[in-house]
Amino acid sequence: MNIPKFLFHYYELDNGPFRNITEYGYEKAKKIQNQISKGWNSKRPENYIELRLALEKRIKEQLISKGGKPNRNDPFYFTLGKCDWAKSWYVNPGVIKIPLTDFKPEHISFTYPDSMVSFQFYDEPKLATYRKDCNGQVFLLDEMNDLINNYGVPSDEKCKTEERFKYDKYIEVQVWDDEIINKYKNKA
C-alpha cells in the first residue's frame, strides 16, 4: 500500500494555522484551553494539558532514540492524508495541505492513530480491545510502508464497520521543525 503524499493541518480559521496549545508552556496552555467554549476541543478533560505535555515529551524522546532530530520542544500536528472528521474539531475550520516530500525525514514522526489515542491504548489495560502492536510507539518515515501494509490507512468506513478500528480516524504526523511551517504560515 502507498503512503499518502500529503500532510493536512486543520485549524480554527479565526485563530490561524500552526498554533500548538503547548508552545508557550503550561500556564498559557491552561489559559487557552479554558477559553475554548465551542467545538470538539472544548470537550477535553480537565487534565488535558498535563497529558499533552507528558505525551509530547514521550514522543520527542522516542523520535530522538530512533535517530530523529527535532528542532522544537513541541510539534505541529498534521494528519497523513485527508481526514474530513478533523474539521469537526473546529467551529470554522481551515486546512493546509503540504506535500510530505517538503519535510526532512528527521524532523517528522508518526503515530497510529492519533497520538493521544495510541498511547492511551498502549497504557490503559481497560482499552485492550482496541490495542494494536503499533500503539504507544513513534514511527519514522522509513517505517511507514510496513506500518501501512500491516494496518492500512485509517478510513471512515473501517472505523464504522470494524470494532477494533473504531478510534483509528487517521495517522497523526508530528512536525518538529519551523522551516517549512513558516513558509505556509505566511501564505495562510
Give an overview in words.
The structure is a single chain. The chain has 188 residues and is an alpha+beta fold. Helices cover 31% and strands 14% of the residues. The protein contains 6 helices and 5 strands. The chain has helices at residues 26-35, 48-65, 115-123, 144-151, 156-161, 179-185, and strands at 6-12, 76-80, 93-99, 108-111, 172-175. A 5-stranded antiparallel sheet has the order 3-1-2-5-4, with no helix packed on it. The termini are far apart. The mean pLDDT is 88.
Helix coverage percent: 25-40%
Query: In what order do the strands lie side by side in the largest sheet?
Result: 3-1-2-5-4
Mean pLDDT: 88
SS-based class:
alpha+beta
Identify the overall geometry: globular
Q: State the end-to-end CA separation.
A: 32 Å
SS elements, strand count: 5
Q: What percentage of the residues does DSSP assign to strands (E)?
A: 5-15%
Radius of gyration: 16 Å
Short description:
The chain is an alpha+beta fold.
Features:
alpha+beta; 6 helices; 31% helix; single chain; 188 residues; 5-stranded antiparallel beta sheet
